[in-house]
Structures are given as C-alpha cells and as structure tokens.
Amino acid sequence: MNTLQNAILQAYGWNTYWDTALSHQNENIQRLSPARVVAQFSHSYNIMTESGEHSAIVTGKFEFLAAKRGDYPSVGDWVMVERLPNENRSVIHAVLPRRTAMVRKAAGNVIEDQIIGANLDYLFIVNALNQDFNVRKIERFLVAAWDSGAQPVVLLTKADLCDEPENFARQVENVAPGVPVHFISALLGQGKEALGDYLRAGITIGVTGSSGVGKSTLLNWLAGKPLQEVQGIREADARGRHTTTHRELFLLENGALVMDTPGMRELQLWEAQDGWEHAFADIEELAAQCRYRDCKHDTDQGCAVIEAVNSGALDAKRFSNYKKTARELAHLARKENASSLKTSQKTQRSKPNKSKLRPNKKAYLQED
Ligand SMILES: Nc1nc2c(ncn2[C@@H]2O[C@H](COP(=O)(O)OP(=O)(O)OP(=O)(O)O)[C@@H](O)[C@H]2O)c(=O)[nH]1
Ligand SMILES: [Zn+2]
C-alpha cells in the first residue's frame, strides 16, 4: 500500500522523509507496515497504525538482538510492524533510524542510554516568569535540545505574574542567542498566535521544564481541552468496561503532535557533548584564546575565560554553570568508560557502538 496516502499515518507525521528512509531498508522491513509509537509501558507499546491504534510488543528476535536500552522503541519512534489479523495488536520488528532523539543517560552502576522521546521537531523549554525563573535551568535544557537535534524554543509562562517580561527575555537571549523566546499566559489566554509557527500539521513538539512551571496547563490550553480526555479513545476491555487509552503523543486539532512523557518532564543531566559545546559556544570561543591549550580556566595565567569574567564580559554565573556542567559530564564519561570496559571484558564479543549514544543511521534491527 502507499503509505503516503494513508490519512492516519500522515496525521501522525509520516511524510516523504520517512518514505525515503524506509526505501533504504531491506525488503523484509519494507514488507512490514509503519506505525508510530504513541505510548510506552514497561513491556509493551501503544502504536498508531494505518488502521488505528494497536497495542504492540517487540518480537523475540528483536529482544535477542537488542544490545542496549536505546535500541528499543520509544515514544515518537516510527516502527515497522506486522499487524495481527482481526486484532488490535501488532508485533514490532524494527525501529526506523531516528531523525532526532532526546537521550538521557541514566547514571547508575551501569550507564544506559534511555531515549525519552524520538523524532521531535521542536523542544519547548518552559520556564515561569515568577520566582521560579531560572536562566541556568534554561541553559541546561538547551544543552539537551541541541544534542537531540530538535530545535529549541523557550516559552516563558505565567506572563500575567510579571510586569517586565522583557527583562527576563533579555536574560534568556544572552544565554541562548538566536533561540526564539515567547511569552505565554495560559491564565489570560495570551501568546498562542506566536506558537502557530511551530504547531503545524505533522510537526512533533516536546515539552520540558521543571515541575510547576505550567506544562500541563500549557498543553491543555493548546489542545483546548484536557489532553488525556481529548485523546483517550474509550475502548471496551474484555469485561466490557471502559478504559481510557494511555497516551504520551497527542494529536491536536490543528494537526500538530505534542509529546508529554514522564521522562521529558524532568530532564536530568544529559550526555550531551555536542549540545554542551553549542550551548556554551561563547565560552568555547574564549577558551580557544587561552594561552595553554589544556587550560582548565582555574587561574588567570593567560586564561582568556577568567579574563572575560574579570572584565565583566562574561557573566560569572554562566561561567560557573559551564564548569559545573563540564564536571558532571566528565563524571558520567568516566562511569561510562568503566561500565563499557566491564561489559567488553564480560562478553568478549563486542557489539558495535555499544557505548555510543547517538542514534544509528541504520535501522536498529535488521531482519536477515
Ligand atoms: N498565573 C498563572 N498561573 C499559571 C499559568 N499557567 C499555569 N499556572 C499555574 O501554575 C501551577 C502549575 O501548573 P502545571 O500546569 O500543573 O505545571 P506543570 O509544569 O505541569 O507541573 P508538573 O505536572 O509538576 O510537571 C498551577 O497552579 C497552574 O494553575 C499562567 O499562565 N498564569
Ligand atoms: Zn582558560
């Protein structure tokens, strides 16, 4: 069938990009049907197929071949499935290569990447215009956004509580040159028009920000109704009772898709070397002018960064956040090296790119 003509797949974001991506997969994968993951449970998924919502599990072979947590499907992924005849169930054979991915490194004894949202076009970074306003937090969410490949957009909510929002916007612009900043008041219903640029048919948007900044309020306001109720397709279960389908990817009336996963709500620290360099590009630029190439920016011995802090050209707080983030990333990197060393000693046969967190450009699991 022509997947580009299917109204459901199209509504969930299937387009020529994905059609081309699929054409690069092998024939066994091409024979399957595409579907998008709309919710994730511990051992199963809800997916949107060309004939509506199904529950799904991965095949035994998929499980066998999966080397790490990030190989498994995640909300927002396009998966290739076999639909079981006369049932609202499917089995997942493969994940199409992710266009963007929000990756969280779970720091435990073993570092495992966790995909908390796939194929986002935009990441809305939400911060409130009250005493919770925190430009350092925005900086860190930006690292995550740049690293994921999604385009960041800063939304300053609760604008009704603030007399001079422009002051706050300037602070954001200082740490995030070029990143759009918008004011929102869900209370007064202000600021929706500016979001029209992002909320377009087939575009997927993630929402992140600390607890209480107004994410749920924002999402419900954008949807026009409480989201879980909007999308909660009521289905009869075996006993004939009604249950509401759990969702983490929602289709709004204007055609945009919004992702609201528990993991994305409160991002921890990110494995995010690339994103970090991008978020602190100004400091990296200064660092290039330090006298010593391995300058740690601790003493002012020819250190261009310290010099900039002393002269006021660089905000001391921004510099301290830079150092703090650097230390945490270094700590995670050490842990990762230690754990991948352990794994390779244990198995002796190395699986490709095991410790690499960036998404592969090939489908995670290929049928033979
Ligand atoms: N004054 C004002 N209050 C708002 C606005 N948006 C949200 N709030 C309030 O802020 C509080 C927190 O809002 P939520 O939407 O629950 O925040 P959240 O970010 O979803 O919080 P978590 O669910 O903990 O992640 C609620 O009491 C909202 O009514 C706004 O635009 N103006
Ligand atoms: Zn230096």
UniProtKB/TrEMBL annotation:
CDD domains, per database record: YjeQ_EngC (cd01854)
Provenance organism: Cohnella luojiensis
Protein name (record): Small ribosomal subunit biogenesis GTPase RsgA
Cofactor info, note text: Binds 1 zinc ion per subunit.
Biased amino acid composition, Polar residues: 338-347
Keyword hit for Ion transport: no
Limits of the EngC GTPase domain: 118-265
Subunit structure: Monomer. Associates with 30S ribosomal subunit, binds 16S rRNA.
Family listed: Belongs to the TRAFAC class YlqF/YawG GTPase family. RsgA subfamily.
Cellular component GO terms held in the UniProt record: cytoplasm
An example Gene Ontology biological process: ribosomal small subunit biogenesis
